[in-house]
Amino acid sequence: MTTPPSISVEPPHAAGVSRLLEAGSAYSRALYPAGGGCVQLEAAELARPGVSVYVARTDDGTAVGMIALIDDGAHGQGRAEIVRMFVDEPARGTGIAGLLLHRVETDACARGIRELVLQTGTQHLPAQALYAKHGFRRVEPFGRYVGVPASICMAKSLVGFGAEPLVGFGAEPFDDRPLAVGE
């Protein structure tokens, strides 16, 4: 892939999305053959109001990655959940997952979402590393993941996401102190 993929919000039944959903489910089944791993939402659940499915496509229109954002109020005001992140194996390591995360974070901020939460599995080590690299931290299980032993829940504050450093009258920032406690 020579140019970055395009990322757009698409219906969960768009061309190539069902293939990505099935590949993601197959990947999880391989990691958790006895079941009890990641909780996977199906296409019908992704089609409900408050859910946006983001699809990364190559120049020729091939779907190579996806992520969904659930902003239906179920997690409280100002909080949304990321689900069904998956990138095709040949496209892994090319930055697509990071681009998908950045797009979702940007759109979430524009909607007034202050925190993103997600769930991954204990055996999804690359996913855990990716989310940590992008600022997610482990939190207590929430919602449908409470009592699922193979679940790891994570969250990221979007307060200050995308903000430019404060600059004084010159070209230098005032200082490097955080804008709020916990940043």
Short description:
This is GNAT family N-acetyltransferase. By secondary structure, the protein is an alpha+beta fold.
Rounded mean pLDDT score:
85
What is the name of the CATH topology? Answer: Aminopeptidase
Order of helices and strands: EHHEEEHEHEE
**CATH architecture label:** 3-Layer(aba) Sandwich
Structural class based on helices, strands and sheet pairing: alpha+beta
Count of domains: 1
Count, helices:
4
Q: By CATH's scheme, which homologous superfamily applies?
A: Gcn5-related N-acetyltransferase (GNAT)
Beta-strand portion reads: 25-35%
What's the β-strand tally? 7
Keywords: Acyltransferase, Transferase
Protein name: GNAT family N-acetyltransferase
Domain N-acetyltransferase: 7-159
Pfam family, one: Acetyltransf_1
Task: Describe the protein's architecture and organization.
The protein is α+β, with helices and mostly antiparallel strands and 183 residues long. The chain has one domain: Gcn5-related N-acetyltransferase (GNAT) (Aminopeptidase). It has 4 helices and 7 strands; from the N terminus they run E-H-H-E-E-E-H-E-H-E-E. It has helices at 17-31, 43-46, 96-110, 125-133, and strands spanning 6-10, 51-57, 63-70, 79-87, 115-121, 137-139, 151-157. It has a 7-stranded mixed beta sheet, sandwiched between helices. A hairpin with a 5-residue loop joins strand 2 and strand 3 (63-70). The protein is globular, with a radius of gyration of 17 Å.
